[in-house]
């Protein structure tokens, strides 16, 4: 097996792009970025920061080992909210006191979908699109069975994404919640959050947005877009690590009325009262249920510091440059093999990843992994290139796409 050209090689014909990149030096902050491995899966799991290892060791030795149970009084009890506030500030365009970190995306989708339906009593329909991430669809189906609701499915082209016109066509007096993704997990289509949210509000519904494939890569403005509810994972572009806790957003106007279905002690107005009955906290803490994953939040602290230092605008600029470069190279190297672009060609409509389709892509992906070129595969026939702006170089993209071309040539002879 041949190895891809080292993405750090000064002889790379695209080294000048990295030399001109104002964010290139941040790549050195990530574990493994110095190796020849080509990582095209930053939209599934981001590389870890080198600082995370030291932080985890210090936490075990000093906070956990040194402070023990005192850690709850000193910082841990508030950590889901303090990390939530930082996340809201640097990545979500949301005010303090509206984001809490904890649970998985699936659990928070369930909580927030149930809460959204409760905000619109008497309404019996939930709008969801056929190309939404599987978990979103599965949770919607489960809630519909549980509450006797009807799902209004929007048929969505997997190479593009949901549009305001499609949503408008299914909205009506029975619509309680519209559940959609900001960036489509297959095509990277960026939905018109503000436009769709406004349409839903005109119909009297609330909107729950999944930000898993956008937060940390694409600018998000939850308050400016008048979003009601949102959730997303932190292990993709936000760099929280495998299984890192998700986050939930609730607009200030809904906090006092929010009824989430998994009422636990950490969401109580006075968790240590431990009395009969559940009195929800008046703020975003009411979204919490059980003991929050304090260990799981540690990598997020450094990752959010870095994102705040760089700024989401600069991250987006680099992301657009990387995906545009990948599209141009795919046109040159892969189109002759019959590969088609299954992401928006217009950069303003495209999130942080690029999907390329060919009937042989499942086998191509398996062979690439054996060569230390790591994209991922999504049906139908899609090779996804997840390009994390702070850890991916232009030379890495060039090396990886040349490897894709080589493997395609092998499997299509």
UniProtKB/TrEMBL annotation:
Pathway annotation: Amino-acid degradation; L-kynurenine degradation; L-alanine and anthranilate from L-kynurenine: step 1/1; Cofactor biosynthesis; NAD(+) biosynthesis; quinolinate from L-kynurenine: step 2/3
Enzyme class, UniProt record, top EC level: hydrolase
Cofactor: pyridoxal 5'-phosphate
EC number from the UniProt entry: 3.7.1.3
A GO molecular function held by the record: transaminase activity
Coiled-coil regions listed: none
The reaction(s) this protein catalyses: L-kynurenine + H2O = anthranilate + L-alanine + H(+); 3-hydroxy-L-kynurenine + H2O = 3-hydroxyanthranilate + L-alanine + H(+)
InterPro entries linked: Cys/Met-Metab_PyrdxlP-dep_enz (IPR000277), Kynureninase (IPR010111), PyrdxlP-dep_Trfase (IPR015424), PyrdxlP-dep_Trfase_major (IPR015421), PyrdxlP-dep_Trfase_small (IPR015422)
Pfam family, one: KYNU_C
Keywords: Aminotransferase, Hydrolase, Pyridine nucleotide biosynthesis, Pyridoxal phosphate, Transferase
Function: Catalyzes the cleavage of L-kynurenine (L-Kyn) and L-3-hydroxykynurenine (L-3OHKyn) into anthranilic acid (AA) and 3-hydroxyanthranilic acid (3-OHAA), respectively.
Known partners and oligomeric status: Homodimer.
Family as reported in the entry's similarity comment: Belongs to the kynureninase family. Belongs to the trans-sulfuration enzymes family.
Protein name, UniProt field: Kynureninase
Organism encoding this protein: Nocardioides nanhaiensis
């Amino acid at each position: 097996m041949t190895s891809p050209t080292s993405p750090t090689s000064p002889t790379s014909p695209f080294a000048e792009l990295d030399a001109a990149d104002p964010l290139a030096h941040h790549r050195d902050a990530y574990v493994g970025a110095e190796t020849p491995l080509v990582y095209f899966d930053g939209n599934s799991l981001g590389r870890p920061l080198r600082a995370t290892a030291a932080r985890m060791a210090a936490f075990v030795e000093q906070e956990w080992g040194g402070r023990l149970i005192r850690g709850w009084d000193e910082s841990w009890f508030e950590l889901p909210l303090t990390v939530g506030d930082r996340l809201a500030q640097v990545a979500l365009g949301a005010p303090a006191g509206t984001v809490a970190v904890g649970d998985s995306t699936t659990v928070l989708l369930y909580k927030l979908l149930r809460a959204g339906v409760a905000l619109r009593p008497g309404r019996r329909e939930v709008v969801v699109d056929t190309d939404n991430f599987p978990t979103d669809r599965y949770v919607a189906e489960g809630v519909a069975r549980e509450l006797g609701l009807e799902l209004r499915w929007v048929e969505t082209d997997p190479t593009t994404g949901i549009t305001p016109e499609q949503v408008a066509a299914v909205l009506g007096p029975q619509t309680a919640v519209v559940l959609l993704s900001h960036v489509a997990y297959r095509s990277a289509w960026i939905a018109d959050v503000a436009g769709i949210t406004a349409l839903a509000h005109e119909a009297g519904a609330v909107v729950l947005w999944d930000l898993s494939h956008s937060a940390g890569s694409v600018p998000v403005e939850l308050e400016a877009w008048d979003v009601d509810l949102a959730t997303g994972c932190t292990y993709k572009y936000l760099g929280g690590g495998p299984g890192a806790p998700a986050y939930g957003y609730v607009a200030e106007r809904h906090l006092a009325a929010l009824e989430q279905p998994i009422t636990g002690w950490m969401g109580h107005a006075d968790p240590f009262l431990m009395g009969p009955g559940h009195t929800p906290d008046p703020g975003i803490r009411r979204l919490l249920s059980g003991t929050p994953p304090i260990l799981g939040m540690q990598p997020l602290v450094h990752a959010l510091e870095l994102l705040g230092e760089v700024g989401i605008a600069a991250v987006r600029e680099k992301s657009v440059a990387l995906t545009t470069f990948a599209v141009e190279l795919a046109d040159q190297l892969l189109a002759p093999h019959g590969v088609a672009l299954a992401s928006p060609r217009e950069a303003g409509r495209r999130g942080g990843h690029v999907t390329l389709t060919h009937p042989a892509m499942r086998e191509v992906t398996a062979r690439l992994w054996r060569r230390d070129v790591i994209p991922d595969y999504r049906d139908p026939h899609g090779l996804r290139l997840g390009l994390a702006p702070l850890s991916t170089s232009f030379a890495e993209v060039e090396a990886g796409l040349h490897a894709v071309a080589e493997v395609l040539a092998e499997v299509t002879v």
